[in-house]
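Help needed: design a sequence for this.
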């Protein structure tokens, strides 16, 4: 199977390429990302492509003739999306339109990644069928991207996920677990929001969910996260505990005090029963995932 991974320099992109490359007899992997290949492997075909350039993107896909496309590329910085709305729309919406059009014309399965930020966070433990109501421009753009995929009359899987963490080389952006670990290792005091609830997702699990979606070509929307709902403050405390760092350095702060540019949903978290049943995928607790992460990154 020829698999295209967009955003192959990113956290999920690199992790998925690594996972698929474990079975080279099964998957031929093509990574599409901006600039040079920043992963530490060169045993897959890499194309330096800005996927918002429709002509370049389509020509590249025509040449590859993929069996499946996994779209991990996105503008993921929520405050930057609020500030640079057009740039956000070009990548998070228009590029998804181009990918969907190509998939429709060639009968290709599209796997697209979405987010808990499509919800307003008033309720928590969201099912795939719950009504969205995004609070931020990022959330709006990702909801619109879902609508593009759903309405394009193609074979698709949408995986919604929450607060993804892990480690790969040359990351463009850090993530909550890496950042907390680094700051506490350096003995720095940090303030962490204590009234926003999330179910954090280990990127290795999200990559496995992508692989299941590639293999089964499951259709529809699925929730992917750990099974543990915590405040972001509690998440930081667990990081300190597992990595044996000083919890006293973590100070709580409220959302109101933080004064971020984009609004965040207070309480997300997913109901994972559809994922358990239909993907046969059973995410673990945050604590267990952190232990696994610790074993791989030391
Ligand atoms: N991270 C989270 O907490 C989180 C939570 C919920 C949902 N998600 C969703 O999960 C997916 C993967 O997220 P992630 O954390 O892996 O993101 P990421 O680390 O930011 O990776 C995105 C990748 O896309 C690349 N990219 C950006 N613009 C591009 C363009 N125009 N053309 C080609 N490539 C481009 C980026 O390149 P550069 O490295 O050069 O910028 C980056 O390598 C996204 O759809 C995101 O919305 C993430």
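Sure. Designed sequence:
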């Amino acid at each position: 199977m020829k698999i295209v991974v967009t955003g192959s320099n990113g956290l999920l992109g690199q992790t998925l390429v690594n996972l698929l490359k474990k079975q080279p007899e099964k998957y031929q992997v093509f990574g599409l990302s901006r600039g040079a290949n920043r992963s530490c492997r060169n045993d897959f075909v890499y194309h330096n492509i800005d996927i918002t350039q429709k002509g370049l993107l389509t020509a590249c896909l025509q040449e590859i003739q993929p069996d499946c496309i996994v779209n991990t590329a996105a503008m993921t910085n929520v405050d930057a999306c609020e500030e640079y709305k057009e740039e956000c729309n070009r990548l998070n919406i228009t590029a998804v339109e181009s990918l969907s059009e190509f998939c429709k014309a060639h009968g290709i399965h599209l796997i697209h990644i979405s987010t808990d930020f499509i919800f307003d966070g008033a309720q928590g433990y969201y099912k795939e069928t719950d009504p969205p109501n995004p609070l931020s421009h990022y959330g709006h753009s990702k909801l619109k991207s879902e609508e593009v995929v759903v309405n394009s009359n193609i074979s698709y899987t949408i995986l919604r996920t929450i607060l993804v963490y892990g480690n790969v080389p040359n990351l463009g952006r850090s993530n909550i677990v890496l950042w907390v670990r680094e700051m506490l290792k350096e003995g720095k005091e940090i303030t962490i929001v204590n009234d926003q609830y999330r179910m954090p997702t280990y990127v290795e699990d999200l990559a496995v969910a992508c692989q299941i979606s590639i293999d089964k070509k499951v259709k529809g929307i699925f929730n992917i996260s750990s099974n543990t709902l915590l405040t972001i403050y509690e998440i930081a405390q667990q990081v300190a505990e597992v990595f044996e760092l000083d919890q006293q350095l973590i100070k709580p702060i409220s959302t109101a005090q933080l004064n971020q540019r984009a609004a965040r949903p207070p309480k997300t978290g997913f109901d994972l029963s559809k994922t358990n049943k239909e993907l046969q995928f059973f995410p673990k607790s945050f604590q267990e995932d952190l232990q696994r992460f610790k074993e791989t990154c030391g």
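Residues 57 and 238 are 42 Å apart (CA to CA).
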